[in-house]
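Technical annex, item 7. During the second reporting period the consortium partners agreed on a shared format for inverse folding records so that results from different sites could be compared directly. Each record opens with the tokenized structure and is followed by the designed sequence. A conforming record, contributed by the partner at site C, is shown below for reference.
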């Protein structure tokens, strides 16, 4: 018995998948345009790239908290395809937003933040205080990101990812306009960086909601029983918890590098390199949305697997651009204010992680297949392996004396590979389980 018998046939073609996927890539890669621009405002502050390292740690914790709702978009693409389903999903999204914003504020309380930023992350004095302020001042931005989710869900379900792009392009354009203005007038440092990041996100949220209105109005009444808020929540939690584990990995990488030799130098190199690698990696994982938009017709989604692998090869070009000398000097030196002697180290880190996009696209394919088949536990198992592998790899690297800027690279490559294998194994076991159930059902004849 195939796991896919209960699902409608897909109208997948490589061209249709590409038309849907490219806007998703642009939305994700937009971070490689907007975050570095904002980072340049931060790194031109009083303490240069050291402020950027603390800023990145505060942002990392914000993303750990936002990851608690990381499964919402996937939940919406599965359950919010009717008027009633969308209305219930929108209520779930609002409830989770309120809870998570309260959690973010609590993490900044005097009795809690020293434990997080000093004891766990190993930040010292001013860096710990900057990270705490960044986390607290990021609450408005966090709110905007969450409120945007229902609109994006409606657009993705309608396969209107290109329409959603207009909102993202608006954010990119406004960030590009604000950054040189801020720097020219001396509005630099981590607080100004947050302001320059939040205003464009507000524009993106408003545009996304406006663009999604026609698609939301066209939603049809449900023809079958609609999943309740409780059912949607129970589907969201395993995927979201897995997202927490993923976000914690970035948190843990920073904590281990902070304990390595020459940490104040290694942390900025790592975060500057990851400023490009992370958006590309996230773009690769958007393959999950492609699978949900074009449900596979064969048990293991072989046609989409080949597409995912080819897409990963194309995405490799982004980190490879870091090996072009004048590009590296411009981005790492001029834009990110990295000292000249550290530019070759950032280039080495990006070269070593070149294979990551390929592994991420086929992992995204596996996770999309698991979500479509309503097997969130397979995704959760893979992400638990991801976090465990990250920690073990970092521990080994730290004890072997691996340079701090390479510790994250090595741990990411190993962890993503094992995550893909774990999710795939979970899907194979689930299919075998259903086959065994079918064998035990008496034949009607």
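Designed sequence (site C submission):
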């Amino acid at each position: 018995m195939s796991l896919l018998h209960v699902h409608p046939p897909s109208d997948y073609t490589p061209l249709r998948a590409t038309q849907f996927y490219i806007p998703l890539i642009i939305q994700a890669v937009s971070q490689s345009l907007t975050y570095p621009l904002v980072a340049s405002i931060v790194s031109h502050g009083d303490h240069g790239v050291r402020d950027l390292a603390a800023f990145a740690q505060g942002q990392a914790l914000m993303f750990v908290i936002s990851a608690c709702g990381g499964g919402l978009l996937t939940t919406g693409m599965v359950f919010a395809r009717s008027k009633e389903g969308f209305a219930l999903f929108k209520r779930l999204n609002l409830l989770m937003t309120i809870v998570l914003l309260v959690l973010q504020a609590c993490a900044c309380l005097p009795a809690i933040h020293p434990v997080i930023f000093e004891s766990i992350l190993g930040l010292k004095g001013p860096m710990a205080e900057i990270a705490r302020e960044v986390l607290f001042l990021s609450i408005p931005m966090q709110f905007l990101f969450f409120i945007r989710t229902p609109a994006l869900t409606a657009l993705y379900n309608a396969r209107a990812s290109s329409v959603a792009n207009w909102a993202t392009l608006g954010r990119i354009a406004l960030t590009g306009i604000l950054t040189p203005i801020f720097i020219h007038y001396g509005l630099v440092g981590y607080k100004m960086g947050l302001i320059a990041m939040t205003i464009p996100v507000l524009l993106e949220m408003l545009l996304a909601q406006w663009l999604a209105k026609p698609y939301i109005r066209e939603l049809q009444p449900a023809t079958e029983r609609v999943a309740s808020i409780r059912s949607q929540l129970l589907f969201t939690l395993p995927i979201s918890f897995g997202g927490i584990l993923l976000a914690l990995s970035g948190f843990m990488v920073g904590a281990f590098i902070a304990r390595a030799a020459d940490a104040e130098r290694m942390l900025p190199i790592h975060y500057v390199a990851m400023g490009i690698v992370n958006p590309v990696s996230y773009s690769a994982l958007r393959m999950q949305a492609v699978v949900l938009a074009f449900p596979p017709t064969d048990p293991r989604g072989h046609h989409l697997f080949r597409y995912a692998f080819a897409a990963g090869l194309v995405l490799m070009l982004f980190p490879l651009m870091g090996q072009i000398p004048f590009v590296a000097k411009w981005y790492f030196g001029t834009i990110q204010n990295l000292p000249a002697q550290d530019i070759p180290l950032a280039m080495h880190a990006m070269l070593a992680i070149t294979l990551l996009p390929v592994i991420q696209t086929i992992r995204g394919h596996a996770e999309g297949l698991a979500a479509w088949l309503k097997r969130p536990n397979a995704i959760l198992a893979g992400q638990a392996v991801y976090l465990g592998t990250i920690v073990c790899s970092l521990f080994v690297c730290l004890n072997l004396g691996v340079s701090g800027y390479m510790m994250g690279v090595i741990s990411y490559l190993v962890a993503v590979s094992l995550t893909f294998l774990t999710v795939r194994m979970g899907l194979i076991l689930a299919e075998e389980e259903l086959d065994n159930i079918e064998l035990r059902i008496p034949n009607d004849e």
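The CA atoms of residues 26 and 165 lie 7 Å apart. The chain has one domain: 14-440. All partners now use this format for quarterly exchanges.
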